[in-house]
Specification:
5 strands, Thiol Ester Dehydrase, Chain A
Length: 125
């Protein structure tokens, strides 16, 4: 299904301790805050693990990314549910039979506090 300028795609995900363990093994990001629970028993999610949320839209629509910009506002913890809203800013067929895409996004936790925002651009072959 093609996208249109102005479309908003929303989805959510809760992060688990297992997610952090897997991402730690893959990324090598072994910051103590990712390995040691806080006083409430939570781990801090790696920023780039949180950043996988808006990239899901790219994967769902076969986007080959060219640029990604992320601004991290506050930490995300295991057990948090993050709601990600992606807005299509540009979706334009090009002469080379590709489609250019630009999207902005904002991610908020279950308390409606912003944790991440930014944009991505790329092409669809």
């Amino acid at each position: 299904m093609p996208l249109n300028v102005g479309d908003i795609i929303t989805f959510e995900r809760a992060f688990t301790v297992r997610d952090v363990e897997i991402f730690t093994a893959i990324s090598g990001d072994e910051g103590i805050h990712h390995l040691t629970p806080d006083e409430q028993g939570r781990l801090v999610i790696q920023g780039l693990l949180t950043a996988t949320l808006p990239t899901k839209v790219g994967g769902d629509h076969n986007v080959i990314a060219r640029n990604m910009n992320f601004e991290f506002s506050r930490p995300v913890f295991t057990g948090d549910t993050i709601i990600c809203e992606v807005k299509i800013e540009k979706y334009e067929r090009q002469e080379n039979n590709r489609t250019a895409i630009i999207a902005t996004f904002v991610c908020k936790n279950q308390n409606e506090k912003e944790v991440l925002n930014g944009e991505f651009s790329g092409v669809i072959l």
